[in-house]
TrEMBL record:
GO terms for molecular function: transmembrane transporter activity. PANTHER family: C-METHYLTRANSFERASE, MAJOR FACILITATOR SUPERFAMILY TRANSPORTER. It comes from Metallosphaera sedula (strain ATCC 51363 / DSM 5348 / JCM 9185 / NBRC 15509 / TH2). The keyword Transmembrane helix applies. InterPro entries: MFS, MFS_trans_sf. It holds the Pfam family MFS_1. The chain crosses the membrane at residues 12-32, 38-58, 92-107, 128-149, 155-177, 193-213, 225-247, 254-275, 342-364. The keyword Transmembrane helix applies. SUPFAM superfamilies: MFS general substrate transporter. This is Major facilitator superfamily MFS_1.
Length: 366
């Protein structure tokens, strides 16, 4: 790994060190502070991913045209809009600030992935994405820890969240310091493979609902807000640690992707049966969700980078577009089903994740 891989990865670390505290706070702010029904939260999350997918595709396409570094820095700087969510005086302000920053996060992500592709050779690709994912989620874990400690100490969101802008700005500095190659990719074009992976990613997006739902589940089960936000910490921590493990292992891309989808299906089903055991039963399922995420975030972009042809940014944009469509559908359905019963919501997610597994198995067989 050259130094640019670590600069880009530490940029991800500092970005998540900031905005993931806002992500973990958002469902609490809407449902418990402004007293909106859970299905409204599901609709807002659907909009964030549904409209965000347009920004994802746009960011990937513009990365090919204007340069991945320029696009990534522009989007990353505007993620700081998320930090002002804690200052909102009503639910509409909170939703507006959150969505604005989240759209910029989506805009930046394909360009940042393209920078990583440009900084690596093909045989380094999966390891580089594993390192990126590991440091990315490690930053998120620390963010959730300081958020949970702050809430435990009775600090308000208005006192905690504005400070998250500082690590996001540091993240932008690391992107500026990196020097990825802007030359053409040597990736081979394979539209069928890219399409199959995009379809599997779409279904996986439907099954990997917003982390706000497990946060709400644990909060309901334990009646403690800080225990709910810690759920996200277990998810991020396990995903970060397993991502680092994947960076040390040699594993075929398709095998890793299949395992990730399967583990996610098992974790979603586990939320149904372990709800009565409170955090003792639910935290291990959050950990499994993190493991599944590490597999997917490592091997999905690795495969896409190898079959996207010359326009790697557009390929990453297509991958993000597919995942965004899945998130849009998934969070809408989860919000509705969760309003009826958490059992229906998690059963739906588990079955769809199994569908992603079947697609990749069929692709490997061909």
């Amino acid at each position: 790994m050259n130094s640019d891989v670590y600069k880009i990865s530490f940029s991800a670390f500092f970005a998540d060190l900031g905005y993931q505290a806002v992500v973990a706070s958002f469902p609490i702010i809407l449902v418990f502070q402004f007293h909106l029904p859970i299905y409204i939260y599901g609709v807002v999350e659907s909009v964030s991913y549904g409209v965000g997918l347009i920004f994802s595709f746009l960011g990937g396409a513009l990365a090919d045209r204007y340069g991945s570094k320029r696009v990534a820095i522009f989007g990353n700087l505007l993620i700081t809009l998320l930090s002002f969510t804690g200052l909102a005086q009503n639910s509409l302000e909170a939703i507006g600030l959150f969505l604005s920053g989240w759209f910029m996060r989506n805009f930046r992500s394909p360009a940042r992935r393209t920078m990583l592709v440009q900084a690596t050779s093909e045989n380094e690709r999966s390891r580089a994405f594993a390192i990126l994912h590991s440091l990315d989620f490690l930053g998120g874990l620390i963010a959730v820890v300081y958020l949970s400690v702050g809430l435990y100490l009775r600090l308000s969101f208005a006192e905690i969240l504005p400070l998250t802008a500082i690590p996001i700005l540091i993240s932008s500095l690391f992107l500026y310091l990196s020097r990825p190659r802007e030359g053409k990719s040597t990736a081979r074009r394979s539209g069928k493979v890219l399409g199959a992976v995009a379809l599997a990613s779409l279904l996986f997006g439907i099954s990997t609902y917003s982390p706000g739902f497990p946060i709400i589940t644990v909060t309901q089960s334990t009646s403690q807000i800080y225990l709910g936000t810690l759920t996200y910490g277990f998810f991020l921590g396990s995903s970060s640690g397993f991502g680092m493990l994947l960076s040390r292992l040699r594993m075929k891309d398709y095998l890793g992707l299949t395992l990730g989808y399967l583990v996610t299906a098992i974790a979603s089903a586990g939320f149904i049966f372990l709800f009565p055991f409170r955090e003792i039963g639910l935290y291990p399922m959050a950990i499994l969700l993190g493991v599944g995420s590490a597999f997917a975030e490592t091997f999905e972009p690795s495969i896409a980078s190898k079959v996207a042809g010359q326009n790697v940014g557009t390929g990453m944009g297509i991958l993000s577009l597919s995942r965004g469509i899945g998130y849009f559908v998934g969070n809408s359905v989860m919000g509705i089903l969760y309003s009826l019963s958490y059992v229906y919501a998690y059963a739906f997610a588990s079955l769809v994740a199994l569908g992603s597994t079947v697609i990749i198995l069929a692709l490997v067989r061909k």
